[in-house]
Amino acid sequence: MLEIKNLHVKLEAEDKQILKGVDLKIGAGEVHAIMGPNGSGKSTLSYVLSGREGYEVTEGEATLDGVDLLEMEPEERAAAGLFLAFQYPVEIPGVGNMVFLRTALNAQRKARGEEEISAGDFLKLVREKAKTLKIDAEMLKRPVNVGFSGGEKKRNEILQMAILEPKMCILDETDSGLDVDAMKLVSEGVNALRSEGRSFLVITHYQRLLDHIKPDVVHIMAAGRIIKTGGPELALEVENNGYADLLEGVV
Amino acid sequence: MGLIAPKAEALAARLGALTAQASLPEARARALDRVGASGLPHRRDEYWRYTDPASLVAPQAPKAAVFDPRDEAPLFDAIDRLKITFVDGVFAPDLSDDLTLAGVEISRLAAPAPWAEGAYGVLEALGQSPVARPLAALNTAFATDGVLIRVTGRAAKPVSLIYIHKSETSDAMLHHCVSLDPGAELTLLENGPAAARFNKVLEVEVADGARFHHIRAQGRDHERRAVTHIFARLGAKSLFKSFTLSANGILTRNEAVITFAGDEARAHVAGAAMGDGAFHHDDTVFITHGAVACESRQVFKKVLKHGAVGVFQGKILVKPGAQKTDGYQISQSLLLDEDSQFLAKPELEIYADDVKCSHGSTSGAIDETALYYLRSRGVPKRRAQSLLVLAFLADSIAEIEDEAIAEDIRARLESWLERHED
User: Fold this and answer.
1) 3 state DSSP class of B392
2) Which of B372, B379, B387 sits opposite A53 (nearest CB)?
3) What's the rounded mean pLDDT across residues B284-309?
4) Non-local CB neighbours of B58 within 8 Å, separated by 6+ positions
5) Would you state the pLDDT for residue A250?
């Protein structure tokens, strides 16, 4: 599914190398987690994969089902099946949530050569998905993320994911700012989307999210590289001992 | 007091190109006196500091090519309305409906109803202080036609003034008066470029408890020039709402002069202007709070690219005793490149102590983070930009109460954005 080889990335504006050779391979249907201390490059990795401006790939590659992601525009990556659930979902005053969702869905369909969804079918689809995420109709009527609480914003990200049905989902600190109940709700939303053909990359600081979204593989990232890879037990080790032991000898 | 020589010469040259009109001779003579006293505007005048009026006062109108709307349906096409059409400023009976409508009496300036004697030029004259507006007085003196609308009840449907531009050299001057009786209600629509050069005055007397809605679109001819004035006086508990869409036009100066004469009235003026390239658009607003507990809103948004220029001069004057005034003013521009500019001069002048007045003005670029967010969901860049531009304009369009009309305006904006993607 997703394959990253020796990825080196620097900030465009300054001469600062953030990623220094990331290797990662996620198979279809797998759930991988990346943990790591602040500043290790986790969010940068998610931004570079989704096509945010301001980063320069100096070496390496990233492919989705064999297709070069790094050459594509952000919207092309989305149409190819990549989705990033933002750590800080963006507020867009004046753009209604429903208009946004429908525009996005139809644009992706069009890009894939599929037919656009009718207004009626779309409404049905949104209502159904929103219900399971406990998103009320009032929230859907508002402008994108405007006036949403932290938890509502994260649920809205998962709603978008549920509607767009990507095959590669990256969750960037989706647990940040969530209370226990909200985290459970969001995790249930994610788990409902787990399937053989869909993979996840879950970026988090804390092991607790991984209690709800159980990963197949856990990676530890530090100083722009993946320094250790293991099973779910690796996350527990971090939770108990912190990163200090793992970081010895790195940097 | 005489005019300085250059002003006297400019005025004489302009007057020499105009023809005296027969109707309402006394009001016209008084208006001519006002023009004589102030002379025509010049860019050295403080009130014209950001907009050069030379082409508006020149004896002849500069040429303006006619815009090709391709296969696009005319604005307000699906709205049930009473149509009154002017082609290059000349009334076109074959393109107009019969001027009868329940709740409304309509006559033409060329053959005015008796009530016009006491209305024509009255609000324009009042609006000459504290700032002279000579192009409005010139209009009162020489306007060739217009409509006089007396609203006695609730108008059965909107009155729609359609201005068609056909001749590349046309120079039109129209003057409309609207008088709403107490409790009456009217929606007035205006659309079209009207002429190569268009000078228009609209006087609106809103009696106690009456409601007036005004929505206009100034036409998309790139080379057209327009100077327009709205003069409104509001009685107690009345409502005045005006929205203007300007897309294209080499030069536009829209002035709104609104006075609260009765308590607890509301006036909202809003505008959305989109300019690409040779585009200079000036909104000049003067709101006088002369009564208690009135609410005024000014919401002006401009989207500018390729060297387009936007101007906003907005003033709120709160007179002594106009307590509980609620005045709000926002002017914002979205600059789509570094060549465009926005000049804003917001002013508050307050002589009462129990008032709430605020103003804000901003210039900014497209929010790159929002753009990335939309694109990351699969929305193509152009479409994402259009969504963000429409979002930027949303507050001003929200001032249109009728949803069908607002939708028409939005569609027009989208089509403009499609034509101006690069």
Assistant:
1) helix
2) B372
3) 98
4) B14
5) 60
Question: Which residues touch A8 (CB under 8 Å, ≥6 apart)?
Answer: A17, A19, A20, A21, A57, A58, A59, A60
B1 pLDDT higher than 60: no
Is the per-residue pLDDT at B32 higher than 80? yes
Kindly identify which residue of chain B lies nearest to residue A157, measuring between CA atoms: B377
Q: How does pLDDT run across B109-137, given as a tens digit for each residue?
A: 999 999 999 999 999 999 999 999 999 99
* Local confidence band at B105 (pLDDT 50, 70, 90 cut-offs): very high
Range of the domain at A119: 2-247
Q: What is the pLDDT of residue A91?
A: 93
Residue span of the structural domain in which B240 resides: 5-366
For an interface test with B, the pick among A84, A95, A170 (most B C-beta atoms closer than 10 Å) comes out as A95
At A76 the three-state DSSP class reads helix
- B377 assigned to some structural domain: no
Instruction: List the CATH number of the domain containing A10.
Output: 3.40.50.300
* Chain A residue with the nearest C-alpha to that of B367: A92
DSSP string over B302-337:
EEEETT-EEEEEEEEEE-TT-TT-EEEEEEEEEESS
Q: Is the pLDDT of residue A251 over 70?
A: no
The total number of structural domains that make up chain A: 1
C-beta of residue B371 within 8 angstroms of C-beta of residue A92 = no
pLDDT (mean) for B367-383: 94
Domain count along chain B: 1
Average pLDDT on B22-45 reads 96
Mean pLDDT score, A102-128: 91
d(CA B306, CA B275): 8
Residues of chain B contacting A92 with CB distance shorter than 8 Å: 367, 370, 373-374, 387-388, 391
The answer to whether the Cβ–Cβ distance between B376 and A105 falls below 8 Å is no
Structural tokens at position B318: 């709160």
Burial of B168 (0-12, 13-18, 19+ CB in 10 A): middle
CA–CA dist A205, A197 (Å, integer): 26
Quote the minimal CA–CA distance from A176 to chain B in Å: 19
The conformation of residue B274, written as its DSSP 8-state character, comes to E
Taking contacts as CB-CB distances below 8 angstroms, the residues of chain B near A167 are none
For A50, nearest residue in chain B (alpha carbons): B376
For A90, the closest of B370, B383, B387 (CB atoms) is B370
- Quick check: helix, strand or coil at residue B141? helix
- Residue A208 has a pLDDT of 86
